[in-house]
Amino acid sequence: MGKLFGTDGVRGVVGESLTPELALRLGRAIGAYFGKGARVLVGRDVRAGGAMIECALTAGLLAEGVRVYSAGLLPTPALQYGVKSLGFDGGVMITASHNPPEYNGVKVIAADGIEIPREDEKIIEDYYFRGVSSSLPWREYAYNPQVRADVLETYINAIVDMVDSDLIRRAGLKVVVDCANSVGSLATPEVLRRLGVKALTLNCNLNPEFPGREPEPTVESLRVAAETVKIYGADFGVGHDGDADRAIVITDEGEVIWGDRSGTLLTEFSAEEWRELPRRTYTGVSSSILVEQYLNPLGIKVVWTPVGSVVISRMIQRDGGAISGFEENGGYMHVPHHIVRDGAMTTALMAYMLAKERGSLSEKVKKLPRYYPIKTKIPMNRERALCAVEAVKKYYSGYRQVTIDGVKVIGDDFWVLVRPSGTEPVLRIMLEARSKEKAEKLLEEVKRAIDESCGPRR
Length: 458
Ligand code: MG
What we know:
alpha/beta; Alpha-D-Glucose-1,6-Bisphosphate, Chain A, domain 3; TATA-Binding Protein; 7-stranded mixed sheet; 5-stranded mixed sheet; globular; binds magnesium ion
């Protein structure tokens, strides 16, 4: 049986591996999965090919008797919130999230507003490869897709209602928002406006060529945003990915902080604000060990999970709730709002925390244990990536290892995670040590161990 889904949906280069023919067939498979008569909400980000994929996919859904509703351009978490709160049977989001501009993709959302579980992806793959084709009586082809223009507004209102907007307004905050030229532009600036926050926007014009920066928020891609935070004298900055389910935060001093840092602070704050929530949080193995070091003494339990937000969402749901779930890549789930990553919600929550607790974000970050992080990826095929994981296991066999996803090696004052990407042919390496020099030395050591075991890089 072939495979369609990666870590987070179906992805491919538009016009190459992601064609209208594929989208049509995938639409039929998704339609068969939801079933005849199901009400399914479809939305997309700004990417090239979005309209083409939506049309072909919609044709496939209609052919299976699905009632299609089009939400148009919007962030993934807005579509997810719409599916959950407006009573749809499911959703489809056309996006390639943080991938380079030439990519597009499809995420399938269950009736609860969370991406469908892995087992259900297999059902859709099965329908896809077997090539389902229901034939309906001719009258049942008479249905016309409906436009739902209220989804985005419903979502924005829910976020504004989740926080104390009067308190935030009184704090007079200034924020820089970098929307990556995609659908974050449609939500976050408006949320901030309604909260009385002065928002300076960067790359908040829609443009499928992503002229401002690559769709993945990184230290590199947020360089202009970070400088702007300092020039503007902002309280913080935020950078979204292509579908705005992620928010990477920048401190008032212009430091880009990874999602495990901001997630740790937001979890501490939310534990006080929403005291009814079970005192635990879920985070991927790609997060720093500082999460545990900081939150455990506060009586907040940290549950380590495999990488991939869907796994985190489903684990929180299975275990009956949590304060939060988050990943180092900037995906933060505010559970009282929805158990999915949400860039605009995260931004509003950050504003709420700073308005309520006073003090600068940079001071708060300095309370966390200090580690110097390096995140990098090396292009390689899956076979070599798997070899690399084994090589690292062997090289660091004397250390504590977590092997729920790739391998994470944990020392007293450092950690390394090596794992094959689920969305691209690359090996992801993340590591932290107490200083920049030690981190760089560690990266060289890891690369050497891989080369020695798997042969020189090709
Ligand atoms: Mg995303």
